[in-house]
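Input chain follows. Return structure tokens only.
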Amino acid sequence: VDYAMSGQNPVSSLSFVPKAGYRGTVTLPYTATNSDGTQYTGQVVINVDTPLYSSYFNDLYGANTDTLAAVDFLYTQEVVNGMSPGQYGPQLSIRRGDFCLMLFRAFQFAGAGSTQSFRDVPGDAYYAQAVNTLRSLGIVDGVGGNLFMPDGTLSRQDAMLMVQKAMQSVGWNAPNGDASSLYNYSDNGDIAGYAQGAMSYMVRTGLLPTSG
């Protein structure tokens, strides 16, 4: 991101975070007041370049700009760490326990220890606090028999349902969407009934593509 400022005086500090994947120029006009009461006007022109590679991971070269922006942002927010220094593992599936940890970090949930752990979630597992907290909040409920399958891969529809429940648990308005929002998906018949509301909400709010 390059900044160019015009006006009688420079802006002393500025924070600007573009939407993930955004490319282009943003112009911000401003009116500032000096300590002596005098005012001046100007504008800040921000040029957002297209990233070609990740600033933190070597195995994301060639990924689309939305992916690069999203992964790097989540890394700076300490939501994801990657597999090892410089390696993100973009083609690997996300495990259920790991996705719980990502949600736990992203929504900054406080740890909860009152809920009994799943039988297959050891207390010393790196994801145990996250899984137990999400269970206590009603975001996850396992696969039956007091089991969670933390090493199992997570389906896309289950991930969307967990995100919706996490939004609701922090007070966001995230109601179920109408199933008609899913008609433009060629595989909409494969979406389980329990996940249709969450999937529709994500499509309606622009968090998922609207067709394909």
